[in-house]
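Trying the structure run again after the queue cleared.
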Amino acid sequence: MGLKAIAGGAVVGAAIGFVAVNALGHLRPERYDVAAGRAFRCTVLSVYDGDGPINCAETDLRGRPIAVRLRGIEAREYDDSCQHPELCPTASGAAAKAILVGLATGRLDCVSYGPSFKRVDARCANAAGADLSCAMLKSGTAVRWARFDPDGRLKGCVPPSGVRAERVNGPAGDAGADAL
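Done. Tokens:
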């Protein structure tokens, strides 16, 4: 094998390596600032239960995967338990998750309200423009948590009649009286 053949092989190998590195670089997840008030996108990977977390392909600025907790609503846990009994919807956890899985597909456009444990408290809309918190309320699988909807944005998301629609307060000694 001559010197020209070896040099030619090295150039081809370097070109293939360059293309591969650049292609893989585009597969890295987008990073977003998820501080309160900031808009971000979420490519949905999975949904845990009816109010989140919705696990996103994107990461925050520190490189941690973004997990969204939907703003202003409470749904039963996947095992039908209620973290806050005074905010417990009648629908099952499986029903709530199924509705949210159907709504949260593809890419979501979200606005952060800040951190919520290891998640981002956020308002999100799907590609059709549906506000996920509002749609969950309308489905009757979640209830409005007024404490986390202080501006009343979700009040107009009236669920079907006969479904307990909202509670005024949350846990920790709050009254928890029906608001309707």
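Residues 20-25, 162-180 have pLDDT under 50 and may be disordered. Worth checking whether this holds up in the mutant runs.
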